[in-house]
Design goal:
469 residues, alpha+beta, seven-stranded antiparallel sheet, 12 helices, 18 strands, four-stranded antiparallel sheet
């Protein structure tokens, strides 16, 4: 197993850009992709993931103190290794017959062979492994030619490389039911925020002409500038796209510098893992303190709601585009009369000029119902350490709130045998206790639902409050 950090310590190599050596084609295999925030990975068990249609298993090897990534197939009978465990010896153990593997993919033990057997030394007993590296709090995996991994540039958010401790970073992630390129097209379009995200992070009153200009573009991405900001008083706003899957908006003013960063890691056709990062750097320390006070899980509930503002129509939009000829025909399928769509246009141009298709020749699966599109539990909660823990605590509090409310109601006849139930203190206790804990149960129940599913009606479609227009 190649750990890029260990390799870089041993040798210095000339850095190459992702996408492969062919100047006319961008190969999605030849790039690093984030697969998890490090804080969400569990070192005690294997974690499954699918990257560019390949099922992989991620696990922590105690011996090398590093994350490993294997193809998720035991060479014996092709059972998924992610269903196994990390055994007492720190090896990855297959759930089917107990074959075990070390971090380099070599088989260490075959329980079924007689004493003295050497079948585990065969190359056929090895598991294919992929290079991994840790960077900016994320685990990256490279599934292309492993010889290129050590030389290929890792897609980092360059402003965060300045070494400053002043950055405060909020982050979230979610497996979303649309393509990586559909996600990037959406995020590269700032003009949609006022309408799509009205009453969440946008407001229709802020909609205005937006002139975007691409100032540099090649196979490996583009840089663009905004000639009108969304809000007055901003000194500079720019957008950077790093092919194939990273972009950020950079709002830089005297009072603060704010980034909106998105990685779109392709899972399979019509599905990707979105990593959203929101780095802030303020002139004053006070805003940073307030941001840090909010629990990560609480931020995720709100951020999931923002993602769901456009989750349904993006799922359908990409299928409509495919029916009209796909990205090669985007200029006819889309009507893009304003410069607000300049970055969208450039993304499709790069996609077509360099044959940059993550899943060439594949078609989208049939559209799925709205209720499934708004599912949160499997697309986020179970994979997020913060939200898993918060949900468990909320369920405990809800249980005990219900118990206390029920017991306080049931105890009323019993208390009448020993206490003067007409006295004000007793009446107050017997009235307030069940009401308070009953209300707590209802509030916790509503909060619990937010870990499982999103809102059917987006806030932009709710009736406007009087005087809010």
């Amino acid at each position: 197993m190649l750990d890029i950090n260990q390799t870089l310590e041993k040798e210095t190599t000339e850095e190459i850009l992702p996408g492969g050596s062919d100047p006319y084609t961008f190969d999605w295999q030849e790039a690093w992709y984030p697969v998890h925030y490090l804080e969400d990975l569990d070192k005690s068990k294997p974690t499954p993931f699918t990257l560019l249609g390949k099922d992989i298993v991620i696990w922590w090897e105690q011996k090398s103190q590093s994350w490993q990534a294997f193809i998720d197939e035991c060479p014996h009978r092709l059972a998924p290794l992610s269903e196994g465990r990390i055994n007492e010896d720190g090896l990855l153990e297959c759930p089917y017959h107990g074959w075990t593997f070390s971090g380099d993919g070599s088989c260490q033990h075959i329980p079924q062979q007689p004493q003295g057997g050497q079948a585990q030394t065969s190359k056929r007993a090895c598991v294919a492994s992929y290079p991994t590296t840790e960077c900016q709090g994320m685990l990256f995996v490279y599934i292309g030619n492993s010889d290129n991994a050590v030389k290929t540039k890792i897609p980092v958010v360059e402003p965060l490389q300045d070494g400053s401790d002043d950055w405060v970073v909020m982050n979230t992630f979610r497996d979303v039911p649309y393509d990586a390129l559909t996600l990037l097209e959406n995020i590269l379009d700032p003009s949609h925020v006022a309408y799509t995200h009205h009453q969440t992070v946008g407001n229709r009153k802020n909609a205005a002409p937006l002139e975007l200009e691409v100032v540099k573009s090649d196979k490996h991405g583009f840089k663009g500038v905004w000639h009108q900001g969304i809000k007055p008083g901003q000194s500079e706003i720019s957008t950077t796209f790093v092919a194939p899957s990273l972009m950020w908006h950079d709002i830089n003013s005297e009072k603060a510098r704010i980034l909106t960063v998105v990685y779109a890691t392709p899972i399979r056709k019509g599905e990707c893992r979105l990593f959203a990062r929101f780095p802030f750097k303020f002139a004053s320390k006070l805003p940073s303190i307030f941001i840090k006070l909010r629990p990560r899980w609480y931020n995720h509930l709100g951020q999931n709601g923002v993602l769901e503002d456009d989750q349904i129509f993006l799922h359908y939009q990409e299928r409509y585009l495919q029916a009209k000829g796909g990205s090669p025909n985007f200029a006819k399928a889309f009507y893009l009369p304003t410069k607000a769509d300049s970055f969208v246009f450039e993304l499709h141009q790069l996609r077509n000029n360099y044959n940059a298709e993550p899943f060439p020749g594949e078609a989208f699966s049939p559209a799925i119902p709205k209720e499934q599109l708004l599912e949160r539990y499997y697309s986020h909660t179970t994979k997020c350490a913060s939200c898993r823990k918060a949900l468990k605590n909320i369920q405990k509090l809800k249980f005990w709130s219900g118990v206390i409310a029920g017991v306080s109601l049931a105890s009323y006849p019993l208390l009448s045998l020993f206490l003067d139930i007409q006295s004000i203190p007793v009446l107050f206790l017997e009235t307030v206790t069940p009401l308070a804990f009953g209300a707590a149960w209802l509030a916790l129940n509503n909060l619990q639902k937010q870990f499982y599913e999103g809102r059917i009606i987006p806030p932009r479609n709710l009736p406007e409050k009087v005087g809010s227009k």
